[in-house]
Amino acid sequence: MAITQASFKIAHAGASAIIKIEGRANCNSTDGFNQVIDQEIREGCRNFILDLSECIIMDSSFLGTLVRKVEEAKNSQDCIQVELFDASERILELMEDLGALPLFQILKTDDEPSVSFKEVSLNTNCDKLTLLKNSIQAHETLLQCITKLEKKASIESLIKMLKIELEAEENK
Questions:
Q1: What is the pLDDT of residues 69-92, one digit of tens each?
Q2: What are φ and ψ of residue 143, in 5° steps?
Q3: pTM of the entire predicted model
């Protein structure tokens, strides 16, 4: 059974790119999200608003990818800013639980810009190796944010499992 991935729509308001994430923001969505962000950064955008009003769920792989993008930009002097709009309580709890929430500004519902979104078409046919590598990298990034020892141990255990699976796939 295939795991569905999120779809992305984009709009621009002033100097900000507003990316609407619809559906399940999971490990299968990370490559597409990277493509959208990278394209906007190449075009000079440094301010991002992630509209999560239609994001059903976000998993730790997607969150780690998001955190990695923010951290990469800081390290490269790109100074991007990422704001979250209309995130569900469940997503905010995940971010808080994994220590990532302080990296983002949270916008209130009355801050919603009036924009027209356009669908983003992506080439996101990742193979299993790419998905495993993306997930390992995302979780290694999250380890830097996590302060709760039990969560850190849980993520470290997951990374070990993913690396074993990656090694098995590479040896096929």
A1: 888 777 766 667 888 999 999 999
A2: -55, -30
A3: 0.87
